[in-house]
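We emphasize that the prediction below concerns an isolated chain of 103 residues; any contacts that depend on oligomerization or on bound cofactors are therefore not represented. The input was used exactly as deposited, without trimming of termini.
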Amino acid sequence: MTTQIKTIENALLELKAASLEANSDHEIRAIMEKYNLLFLGEKFNRIMSMDLTSTLKDYFSCEITHDELLKILPTTCKYLKMDLEELALARKPGELAGFFISL
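Result of the prediction step, given as a token string:
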């Protein structure tokens, strides 16, 4: 396993732990600011792959393009038992534009 994939796995696990530990609006805002990442959904446990790319670079010092991340996420999230939802652009419905990741 490459170092980059291990970094992404650890980052996803850290983000999951942070979302599970946040019990108030104040704590949710604090983790969003800490990671510069939107936590979405009813349980604040969903993130977008495009946003994750920036967080990986800026917070976890992991240089990866969004296209590279899209190739890694299906296997990595399956291994971590995290769900993915494919996103497409309205003008290109058959083309993968990103993922929602349920931590």
